[in-house]
Amino acid sequence: MSELNAAPARLAVEIPDAGYHRRLISCQQACPVHTDARGYVRAIAAGRFEEAYLIARGPNPFASICGRICGAPCEAACRRGRNPRFDADGGHVGDDRPIAIRALKRFACEQAGPDVVPPTEVLTAVQRYVPSVAADAEEMAHLLRDAVAGRFVPARSERVAVIGAGPAGLSAAHDLALLGLAPVVYETEPVPAGMLALGVPDYRLPRDLIRREIEVMRALGVELHCGVTVGREVSFAELRRTHSAVLIAVGAKRPRGLGLPGEPGPGVHGGVDLLRAVALGEQFDLGDRVVVIGGGNVAYDVARTVVRQIAYDAARTAARLPGHRTIRLVSLETLEEMPADTVEIVEGDEEGIERLGGYGPVEIQRDPGGRVNGVLVRRCLRVYDADRRFAPVFDDQDRRVLDCDTVLIAAGQTTDLSFLADGGTDVTEFRPGWPQVDPATLSTTASGVFVAGDLAHGTRLLIDAVASGKKAARAIYAHITGRRLAPEMLEAHLDLGRYRREPGYEMIRRVEIRVLPPEERLKQPGAQVEIGYDAAEAVLEASRCLDCGVTPVFDGTRCILCGGCVDVCPTVCLKLASLDDLAPSPELASLVDRLLGPGADPGAHSAILKDEDRCIRCALCAMRCPADAITMERVQFTTQWRSS
Ligand SMILES: Cc1cc2nc3c(=O)[nH]c(=O)nc-3n(C[C@H](O)[C@H](O)[C@H](O)COP(=O)(O)OP(=O)(O)OC[C@H]3O[C@@H](n4cnc5c(N)ncnc54)[C@H](O)[C@@H]3O)c2cc1C
Is the CB of 460 within 6 Å of ligand 1? Predict the structure, then answer.
């Protein structure tokens, strides 16, 4: 059969099911705690800054810190980042960039969060908050109100031991306090916040902000004891005896070595050990020629911290490193493959870090006195195999020595569960240092012992640790009270009436986030590199949001099939098609039966098809429709926890 005579292919379509519109809100779906990012971005666009903060804070006790440093899976999922851009003639001129969701969250928190408001006022505001358009309130407001109304079993006498005051442990403690239990957090370090305080450098995250965020948790009743090492000042066995449950949230803070010849000994350190020492103001001897091994964000935190230490020690005004001092970052990956964020690489380059991509270390070389004098590296031809498994291949003919006197290794971290020896031998480890965990409840094999954060899922992002801490809190509540705490998804569909968008919103380019010029950054080690948005910039950036929760709803009983909506659509995302032209599927058959009745002739009926990826929710279709058959609707969802 010639192609001309071939029957045209039928269009495969997806019939919206119950969760369809919810799934389209990709930013909220991608967030491990399901923050309504779309909600706060649109609130900023409308100038409702406090509401924006309260939406962001609802499910996330670390909202302000996330505004500074979150790895932002929401941005990676943002549909605007996938949206094709067209010129006036409809030609494809490249793809757009995602909404700067993290920077907008920072802006919202700077308007109404603990950055500017005392802790108790933050709590009162969150408790008061009921979104104007939602069927129900945000998650934390619910918990607060329910706690105040005594709807949870009040169990203040039930103490829960939380080991580790990182984001996982503190998020768990925050929600345990809301649930009416008495969390007691034990932290080995002199300061709380885990890797946020002792890993993330202060030029990315101000220490005062950490303190303020944690003050809100204390105000909720979280008891926090710093400088208490479980396994030393208090045993695990004793915690189990004196508390109704124990949550282990000790993270993975021990630097992983590479096992290289010459590695053990002076002059070679774990990168996170340097970060911890700098954060605590402890002495850490750095030489003049430093090599950092690693290609991820942690390696950049290490290298950029070294830059600041050296520049500060040397001149206090240096824009670049003094000539005889070098900081080299060597990674297996080439520039294109490096796992570090582009912004880290660019800013690292600006600050004078020398990059050597595509090389892996072979040995650390030492002089006869045992002092480090070089790292022997060899070319890495490939890091991953075809299945994206780590399987580096090297070219041993291409070797070179990097002169140095200090080596900092940033190649991942591992755990230390030695405290389990006293009272925790029933906590089974699936491999040394990593407990076996029930993913649904985060419980271990030992009764009443739970885990959260990096220890539960391996090293990930701050927001993953928060999500995991919250999950553990709910499981602990169920364990202690015998009551189930079940999530209930609330979905609201709101008629938006005469919905209008900002003029030209689809053409606005991403507003660059202002940063400190490189020459200013090194004057003070803690100078904030990111300046962020002012109000005008934030409103402009927020107005780029495509508002994926909004959708045109077509009323088939009113539609006169004029095709006006199709004609007016600026992204050609609508199509009028005969039902006969659609590829058959059980879902389509059941919809047709439901709407037209069994036995109806599909050829006599039409459907409006919508390409969700192209639709920019401009509402022109609704405005154009002469029969008022199209209404704009917003779908919004939130999780509420019911105790039963
Ligand atoms: C250098 C660095 C930079 C990072 N930057 C980012 C970023 O920009 N964005 C992002 O999203 N994520 C980032 N992360 C990841 C993020 O910080 C972690 O995923 C998160 O901190 C893990 O939280 P956690 O609570 O599980 O563990 P941790 O934060 O490690 O907290 C565990 C706590 O337990 C304490 N502890 C350990 N043993 C004991 C004991 N025996 N007794 C008492 N206390 C104990 C520790 O001292 C620590 O305070 C970064 C990580 C590192 C290392």
Answer: yes
